[in-house]
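Student: Please help interpret what follows.
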Amino acid sequence: MFRGIYETTIDAKGRTSLPAKFREILVDVHGDDRFVITNSAPVDLGGGAFSSGLLIFPYAKWVEFEEHFRSSRGLSSAQRNSIMRTIISPAVECCADKLGRLLIPPHLRKGAALERDILFIGVMDKIEVWSQAEREKVRIQDLKNFPSDSETVAELGL
């Protein structure tokens, strides 16, 4: 399981370092140093504004996602096309070099507004990548969306 928030930077060419802890989990838990990086689902910030980061899936989890998506029902044709164009089509298979460095392609950097200060955030079976500025906007929206019913929160064990 990926957990934690790691602050780092990305250079103008899109080079950054995947946190060592996350690299260890990829190999030790998932048995593969390969991963897939793609856009995350857009987060509605209200007032017509949206924010988006990136997602990193262990390679096997990405394959599971694609298989599940192929067989899923309940989405309209427009929703399926939107997911394909937003998340599946831009996906890139990667692996970090021996020093943990990776290159995030320009089309993904641009969509996630990654310019300098970024965050790697462990979210159970995947990793989110955010610009610090965009993540702060999403964090504020998350506080608004957080369940206010104490029973609901207690059911989760919090």
